[in-house]
Design brief:
InterPro entries: Acyl_CoA_acyltransferase, GNAT_dom, N-acetyltransferase. This is GNAT family N-acetyltransferase. There is one protein chain. The chain contains five helices and eight strands. The protein has about 180 residues and is of the alpha+beta class. The protein has a single domain, classed as Aminopeptidase (3-Layer(aba) Sandwich), CATH 3.40.630.30. Helix 1 packs across helix 2. The model has no long low-confidence stretch (mean pLDDT about 90).
Length: about 180
């Protein structure tokens, strides 16, 4: 079980008590890639947390240290033997305050330092400029542009709306060199 602490944040597994906070940002997800995670009731949020805890991959709640409020999440998938796909989703009320950067930095540090990751990558839709900038702040390089890569929502006529997706990545040696240069 992963638990990480930063100066302003606590990253930890979700609990049923987080349902109201999860509902806040999953009731109207901004990037369409989270459309499938949409919940519209506290009961649905509790069920979403239970499913995540059981079988839907690995998610960490990102909480404010001062209040314990869940303001977003970091999620990840390990691909054997040493590569991780990562992502994040934050409550719009907390955008622009550096919380995504702070939590992603701490989590990627953990993957490289404690979980022996060699490579970390993220998929970001072309219209999600904030996440693209976050990847760049983290030192990730843009490795690919996938045209009409995936569909999360439908057009007005019911056909799939395919989205262009970018892939960003960083290797452990690049991450370490970036940290060394910053110190």
């Amino acid at each position: 079980m992963i638990t990480l602490q930063t100066p302003r944040l606590n990253l930890r597994p979700f609990t049923a008590d987080d349902a109201a906070d999860l509902l806040e940002y999953l009731s109207s997800p901004i990037p369409s890639c989270f459309a499938g995670d949409k919940v519209t009731s506290i009961e649905a949020a509790v069920a979403k947390i239970a499913k995540r805890q059981k079988d839907e991959g690995d998610y960490l709640a990102v909480c404010l240290n001062e209040t314990g409020k869940v303001i977003g999440e970091i999620f990840y998938v390990k691909e054997e033997p040493d590569t991780y796909s990562v992502g994040w989703n934050f409550n719009a009320q907390f955008h622009g305050k550096g919380y995504a950067s702070e939590s992603a930095q701490a989590f990627i540090d953990y993957l490289f330092d404690k979980d022996d990751a060699r490579r970390v990558y993220a998929y970001v839709e072309v219209d999600n400029v904030a996440s693209q900038k976050l990847c760049e702040r983290l030192g990730m390089r843009k490795e690919g542009h996938f045209v009409e890569f995936i569909s999360f929502i439908k057009n007005a006529d019911g056909t799939p709306k395919y989205e262009d997706t970018l892939q960003y990545a960083i290797l452990k040696k690049e991450w370490q060199a970036k940290r060394d240069a910053a110190s």
